[in-house]
Amino acid sequence: MSEHKDTFRPFHRLAASLIGLLHAHLGIFAIELEEARERVLRTLVLGFVGAGLLVMCLVALASALVLALPAEWRIAVLAGAGVVFLALGAGLIWMAWAGFARGPTPFAVTMEELRRDRERLLS
User: Fold this and answer.
1) What is the pLDDT along the chain (123 residues), one digit of tens a residue?
2) Residue among 94, 35, 85, 90 at smallest CA distance from 62
3) Does the predicted TM-score (pTM) go above 0.85?
């Protein structure tokens, strides 16, 4: 009977090690997921509040500029302001997109740990 238990002891140790590794990786994954969620939420809130305030400022400034000019120049100034606002908006959207593209890869630490574990198990 004791011989039967000794035969499966390495398998039990291996199973326990794999479960431990899985538990550790799930912990790392949960931490990275929470960090990613917080970063995205903070970015969205700041972006929306900032964009709203900028729109209100631009409307106020454009209105003041248009009202301060003679009537014959108002259409040209509005068209010019529209082009400037369009260019600025497109530039900001491009910068935001580039910021996400250059940001850290989600779950990079988890993936690196899984790669190392795979190498250890295969060697």
Assistant:
1) 556 666 777 777 777 778 778 878 788 888 888 888 888 888 888 888 988 898 888 888 888 888 898 989 888 888 888 888 889 888 888 888 887 777 767 777 777 777 787 777 666
2) 85
3) no
In angstroms, the CA 56 to CA 68 distance is 18
Q: From residue 116, how far is each of 13, 14, 110, 112, 123 by CA, in Å?
A: 20, 17, 10, 6, 11
